[in-house]
Structures are given as C-alpha cells and as structure tokens.
Amino acid sequence: MSTLEEGTLRPPASADVLSVAAAELAGAGPEEILSWAFERFDRVALVSSFQAESIVLIDIASRLRPGVEVITLDTGRLPEETHALIDAVGKRFPIRLRVITPDPGEIESMVAAHGVSLFRRSPELRHLCCAVRKTRPLIAGLRDYDAWVTGLRRGQSASRQTTPVVARDDLHGGIAKIAPLAAWSHDDVWRHLRSRDLPVHELYARGYTSIGCAPCTRATRPGEDERAGRWWWEDGSLKECGLHVDRVSSPPREATG
Ligand code: SF4
Questions:
Q1: What is the CA(130)–ligand 1 centre distance, in A?
Q2: Which has more pLDDT, 245 or 37?
C-alpha cells in the first residue's frame, strides 16, 4: 500500500515509512506536500524564520488549514525589521502564532561566562550561542508536535543539497520534518511571492539573501552563496545554526574558549 494512503502517523515516526513517502512526494508541489502532512499528522507546526520561504509556506498552509500553528524563535538578537514583519504577518494571515524565546537563566549564565558577543570569539562559542538562543528552545517548543514544516531548499547551500521532502528528525524526538520547498529554486520562491503580492522582509532590498540574527548576518555580494552572509567571519564553517543538523552544543558551564 502507498504510504500516501495510510492512517495518521505519530512519533516516533518510522524512518522507512517516511523515506518511502519522500520518494512518492519527490515530484509534488508544496500544496500537495502540505496537504499530505495535514492529513497524516494531527499536530503540525510550521517553523518560520520570516524569510521569503517562510512567507510562501504561511500563505499556502494558512489557506489549506486556517489557524495553522506557526512557531517562530525570538532569539533576542533579531533585527527590528524581522519583528515588524512578524507583526504584519500575524495580522494578515489566519494563523496561530507562537513566539518562543530562550531560557533567561541560560542566557544570563552564558553572557556572564563569555560576554555578549561571544559568537565572534570562536566557532565553539558561536555554536553555544546558537544552541542557547535557537536549538534548545526549538527542541522544547516542538515537544508536543507530530511533525514540523521548514522552508529549507536544496539550492540554498552545499550542505542542503540532499534535503529530503520528508524525513524523521531525531533531534526533535523522532517527529517528521517536512520541507515542501526542498525542490524549489530561489526564483520559484520569488515568483510565488510576487504573484500573490505577499509581504517580504525589508532587508532583502538591502542586499541580504539569508536573514538571521542581526549581529551574525550581512548582505551578500553578487556570485556569493545565498548563505554566505551568515557568520561571514568564520572561514569554511558549516553555515548552520544547529536547527538542521543532528547536534546540540553543551550547556554554558561546559563551554570553552
Ligand atoms: Fe547567537 Fe548569532 Fe546564533 Fe543568533 S545567529 S543565536 S546571535 S550566534
């Protein structure tokens, strides 16, 4: 029987079942992939960074399932333009928005031990900051869900080139991770945004091609990788914060550097 026709899936999801589903959905568009997710999982969260891909997914998902749950991470270091867009999107679309934040005690300990701008001092401290401000809050935030939806695309960077449409996510308790835009190009995303007259992050107009925390993101130059402006001072590092890799940094007291 096709995995597309079976009953509801609950975590921990079978990696085999999900890889068959990924193969069956390989040529599907984001509407079909999201419809499949909403039929197969009771509790689905769309995790949004409010970059271009997120807006496309919110537009499609909120039409398929009005009241869809959208989670965003307010790391405490976001640009003000991201906050403005969060408010605008929350008013425009029929979504239930959850803004999750880091543990204040962990932030306090980390800053006391390593300073406010620790991420500039070493890759280890950068990963620690991302773990405290992003990775661990999302692990806690996704605890009650069966599946999460992300805006990852294969064309964003070398490390994302093999992103499956659906996979089991062991970092988040074995729930399903769904990437409806995995096969979409940058142009596909922007074509959709323009055709639907959707709001976009103001920093794109200033040369940014990927947008995260303010101190760790810069505009990119022509010919650079889309994510080259993230942690640009790190030579040859994986341009990831940890949300999409199977690794979480140690607690603040164990950090070095
Ligand atoms: Fe910290 Fe920068 Fe990671 Fe944001 S992107 S969590 S400020 S290291």
A1: 5
A2: 37
